[in-house]
């Protein structure tokens, strides 16, 4: 039973998102903006890039607080780990993804096709290695590598928090609760620490990874059309030949077959006579920025 000096706060656990990129990160920026404005019911806790010069890394590290980033380039990985294979690379990428225990993985311009090994690990079918491959990169953010990422918890469990300005598991700053919660609960001057059992339950919950971890991808084509690389270029060429009069963009779940997973959000885009491929690409990218947020939101809201 809760004493007069304690308060029980049912707070929903915030969802964690890991984003994989290879380039400028404009779609990453759309996700960041949506997360920062609370449009997206989750926050990005890790950005992994296959290229060290990807501008998306700067976008992540410029956030307040900076988002941890990791660079793992395929050529560099293979050269530093003689005898390793492309599958080994994907296994290491999967291990890095799991380090932040994400609820959702978003491919936002990730330029590698993920192997079955990666998918098996994120589906919980195969266990990821517990230790990094030799010469494996470490996250490059200077912020949250030595400090735990702050967490909030599942609304199904009543949890007692301590009033403490430090950011640690089991502790929630009073200022972060919002005036409406504070007023409605009539918080007393002293809020007691959670019991040892409650603390252990909270910590154990966040030690768990909940499989399967959904993976979504953004592809600039309609379902079943122009799978794989250079989809915009191939669609443009088909339009010039009079074979099609529209293309599109979709967010889909990632499965073993390339770009064949369940479509989550689809937008059709009419082709225009006299339009250059660059102009078409610009219109497509504008739509991408919208639907990548819609797709991520749809998946997050469907998680229990």
Summarize the structure.
The chain has 304 residues and is α/β, with parallel strands linked by helices.
Secondary structure blueprint with pairings:
Elements: E1 8-9, E2 15-21, H1 26-36, E3 42-49, H2 55-61, E4 69-71, H3 74-80, H4 86-98, E5 104-107, H5 116-122, E6 159-160, H6 179-185, H7 196-207, E7 215-219, H8 231-240, E8 246-253, E9 263-270, H9 277-302
Parallel strand pairs: 2-3, 2-5, 3-4, 5-7
Antiparallel strand pairs: 1-6, 7-8, 8-9
What is the molecular shape?
globular
CATH domain fold name of the domain at 216-302? Rossmann fold
Query: Taking Cα atoms only, what radius of gyration do you get, to the nearest Å?
Result: 22 Å
CATH architecture of the domain at 216-302: 3-Layer(aba) Sandwich
Structural class: alpha/beta
Mean pLDDT: 82
From N to C, what is the helix and strand string? EEHEHEHHEHEHHEHEEH
The largest pleated sheet is described as:
7 strands, mixed
CATH superfamily of the domain at 216-302: Formyl transferase, N-terminal domain
Q: Terminal Cα separation, in Å?
A: 28 Å
**What's the number of extended β-strand segments?**
9
- Range of helix content: 25-40%
GO cellular component, one term: cytoplasm
GO biological process, one term: 'de novo' IMP biosynthetic process
EC number: 2.1.2.2
Region (Disordered): 128-153
């Amino acid at each position: 039973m809760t004493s007069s000096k304690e308060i029980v706060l049912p707070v929903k656990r915030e969802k964690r998102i890991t984003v994989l990129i290879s380039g400028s990160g404009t779609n990453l920026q759309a996700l960041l903006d949506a997360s920062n404005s609370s449009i997206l019911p989750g926050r990005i806790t890790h950005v992994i890039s296959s290229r060290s010069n990807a501008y998306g890394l700067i976008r992540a590290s410029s956030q307040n607080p900076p988002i941890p980033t990791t660079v793992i380039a395929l050529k560099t990985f293979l050269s530093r780990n003689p005898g390793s294979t492309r599958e080994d690379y994907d296994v290491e990428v999967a291990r890095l993804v799991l380090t932040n225990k994400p609820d959702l993985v978003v491919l936002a311009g990730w330029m590698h096709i993920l192997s079955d090994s990666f998918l098996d690990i994120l589906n919980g079918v195969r266990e990821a290695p517990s230790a990094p491959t030799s010469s494996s990169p470490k996250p490059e953010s200077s912020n949250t590598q030595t400090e735990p990422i702050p967490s909030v918890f599942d609304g199904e469990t009543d949890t007692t928090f301590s009033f403490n300005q430090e950011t640690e598991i089991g502790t929630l700053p009073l200022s972060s609760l919002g005036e409406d919660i504070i007023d409605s609960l009539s918080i007393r001057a002293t809020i007691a620490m959670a019991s040892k059992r409650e603390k252990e339950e909270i910590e154990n919950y966040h030690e768990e990874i909940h499989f399967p971890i959904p993976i979504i991808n953004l592809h600039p084509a309609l379902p079943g059309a122009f799978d794989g690389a250079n989809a915009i270029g191939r669609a443009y060429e088909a339009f010039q030949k009079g074979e099609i009069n529209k293309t599109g963009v979709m967010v889909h779940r990632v499965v073993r077959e390339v770009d064949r997973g369940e479509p989550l959000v689809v937008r059709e885009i009419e082709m225009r006579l006299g339009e250059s491929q660059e102009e078409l690409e610009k219109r497509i990218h504008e739509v991408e920025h919208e639907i990548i947020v819609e797709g991520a939101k749809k998946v997050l809201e469907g998680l229990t």
